[in-house]
Specification:
With 173 residues, the protein is α/β, with parallel strands linked by helices. It is built from five helices and six strands, in the order E-E-E-H-H-E-E-E-H-H-H. It folds into two domains: 51 residues, no CATH class; 98 residues, 2-Layer Sandwich (Zincin-like), CATH 3.30.2010.10. Bound molecules: zinc ion.
Length: 173
């Protein structure tokens, strides 16, 4: 697979005097084209452009991770192994928007989101986070029965220790 360029090589600013407030940006082939009102201050504009760049980069990182790693297949494998294939997982994907957590599960919608930071971690730690989130499809809270389910994964305690050691203060939800 060809890796896509994550960098924006150039920013083009198009000032439009008729434009009042809205600023928009579009990225085509490494060029970010920003349309802004004519009277905007340089300072304000560069702040907004930085935000656009960050957003674009996050989007790219997310796309790449989800393309390169088949999280749904891995989740299904763990579903078979630890839940007898009984779970219904609507979606599982990497996201870049979770700075405070490694994963989260929407119990109602049966959707799971995994932090992009986990992509760098060993497979057995990733599997723990996936099993943890899968267990939330059965038990939304961190109850005794929840942890009983999670403990089916033999490396759960070790993985918890690993996550605590590498990411102080970051929790699973
Ligand atoms: Zn949890």
């Amino acid at each position: 697979m060809v890796s896509q360029n994550l960098e924006i090589e150039r920013v083009e600013i198009i000032k439009n005097l008729r434009r009042r407030r809205t600023i928009s940006a579009k990225v085509v082939g490494g060029v970010m084209r920003v349309s802004a009102p004519g009277n905007i201050s340089q300072e304000k504009l560069s702040g907004i452009i930085n935000k656009f760049k960050q957003r674009f980069k996050n989007k790219k990182v997310k796309q790449e991770l989800n393309q390169n790693e088949d999280l749904p297949a891995q989740a299904e494998k763990l579903n078979q192994r630890y839940f007898s294939g009984k779970l219904n997982i609507v979606s599982i994907e990497y996201v870049t928007s979770q700075n405070g957590r490694f994963g989260c599960c929407n119990y109602k919608n049966k959707t799971i989101r995994i932090s992009h930071r986990l992509a760098q971690m060993p497979g057995w730690v990733k599997d723990y986070v996936i099993v943890h989130e899968l267990a939330h499809l059965i038990e939304p809270n961190h109850s005794k029965s929840f942890w009983d389910i999670v403990s089916r994964y033999k490396l759960a305690e070790r993985a918890k220790g690993f996550l605590i050691a590498t990411q102080q203060g970051v929790l699973l939800d």
